[in-house]
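Thread: quick sanity check before group meeting

JM: Hey all, I'm pulling together slides for Thursday and realized we never actually wrote out the predicted structure for the chain we discussed last week. Dropping the sequence here so it's in one place. If anyone has concerns about the input, flag it before I start.
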Amino acid sequence: MTAGNRVSVVCCAAFGKRLRNIDLSHPIWIVRSDGNNPIIAEFRRAKKGDITDFDSEPFADLMETINEHHWKWVELKVYGVDGDEIESVLTKYGSCTLTRIEGGFVCSRSAP
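JM (edit): ok, ran it. Output follows.
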């Protein structure tokens, strides 16, 4: 799997310093918040990662935008969204397997 096939999505406004532990070799979408903004700014100053920040919105709407930009994704790591909500939204993008991780889920699907 190439870096372009993986995307991380952080919907947790209080994720903050934990952002430093996320793999920066693939695109990361991070919700803007008082807790996340300083780390987003830090990454940008250091030119670390492919970071997209966004205002809080329903996961279904966010996923449409992410899929427009990264339609070849085969692995989506999502932090801060309930698993039931993820599963119901992601069925629109094909069959996927959800695996629980600390603070979220990984959705794996075959190539689109």
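AS: nice. The chain has a mean pLDDT of 90. Strands lie at 6-10, 28-31, 51-54, 75-79, 96-101, 104-109.
JM: adding both to the slides.
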